[in-house]
Design a protein that fits this description.
6 helices, five-stranded antiparallel β-sheet, alpha+beta, 316 residues
Length: 316
């Protein structure tokens, strides 16, 4: 048996003819971990394992109890904010995954929703009409809201994208409130109409952590009819273009992504090249959306997580 200078046990076991036998236990200097090493009759290690000591388990239990106490006192408001926010986060996730997002909208229950009436709007560049919400409100109860959503769906509107971020939360035992920043992208393919809706939504919650009343406090809408200003011309599959696909697929985290992405005209022909530092690739622009894939640097294939371009010689 051996002891640490602090007086705590360091080593315990049985030696026969100079060889350890059975189980030899070793304790860390701080007394938190115990390593058990198992030996056969010839003194050879068969296996070992490390266990937390009662000291460590006691510290862990104390830490968990303290965290629980803080969650119920100091952080009670923050915990409540997260619990209520998760209701809308689940809505957001369901909308992203749904083949028909309107069905998700219909399944999200509440008692009432009030939305400002839009003004006549102002026409901006590219025929974009910008509208603002006014002081007058239009309200729906649950049944009339279902009918309204059905009308939008039957008219051909598609909910393509949405964002929901809780900006603030006011805890209250009876009627807690949240304020969400909401952005919706909606389009009607048959008439080439597209709409972006930006709103600030105040939600009053019931005791079951479900939305009771919703009031849109600010509303902006941008509407445009016509072909999109930008279109997808080509999609680059980095798992095919990468010079070392096997190595790419073995990686995890940030190294999988192509960033940093830099778009710059490298040869002065007014056709910008695409540089993907994270993939170590250069797409040289040959015009008419034709890109030639090349390694970013000669020599061994390298990937970069940060980068900058600069003209150092002054020769253009």
């Amino acid at each position: 048996m051996e002891w640490h200078t602090s007086g705590s046990k360091s080593l315990e076991g049985i030696w026969e003819k100079g060889h350890p036998t059975g189980v030899v236990r070793e304790w860390s200097r701080d007394g938190l971990l115990r390593k058990d090493t198992h030996y056969d009759k010839q003194g050879q290690v068969t296996h070992s394992e490390t266990h937390p000591t009662q000291v460590l388990l006691g510290k862990a239990q104390s830490a968990m109890a303290e965290r629980e106490r803080l969650d119920q006192t100091v952080w009670a408001g923050e915990m409540a904010a997260q619990e209520h926010e998760q209701v809308v986060v689940r809505l957001w996730d369901d909308l992203r995954e749904a083949k028909n997002p309107w069905q998700v909208v219909k399944g999200f229950t509440f008692q009432s929703l009030s939305v400002p009436q839009l003004d006549q709007g102002v026409t901006r560049s590219w025929g974009i009409i910008e509208c603002q919400g006014g002081p007058d409100l239009r309200s729906w109860d649950w049944e009339s809201w279902q009918a309204q959503v059905t009308a939008w769906e039957e008219a051909g509107w598609l909910l393509e994208e949405s964002e929901w971020h809780q900006e603030s939360f006011v805890p209250d035992k009876r009627t807690p409130e949240s304020v969400f920043k909401v952005r919706l992208h909606i389009r009607m393919p048959q008439s080439a109409k597209r709409m972006i809706i930006k709103a600030t939504l105040r939600v009053t919650w019931n005791q079951q952590k479900r939305p009771s009343q919703g009031v849109v406090e600010s509303l902006q809408v941008w509407l445009r009819t016509g072909e999109p200003g930008f279109a997808v011309k080509e999609v680059k599959n980095l798992t095919l273009d990468d010079p070392n696909v096997a190595a790419l697929r073995r990686q995890e985290g940030a190294s999988v992504f192509p960033a940093p992405l830099v778009v710059e005209d490298l040869d002065g022909d007014q056709l910008p090249e695409i540089i993907l530092g994270g993939s170590g690739l250069l797409y040289r622009n040959r015009g008419k959306f034709q890109f030639e894939r090349k390694p970013l640097l000669s020599g061994p294939h390298l990937r970069f997580r940060a980068g900058a371009l600069g003209e150092f010689t002054g020769d253009g």
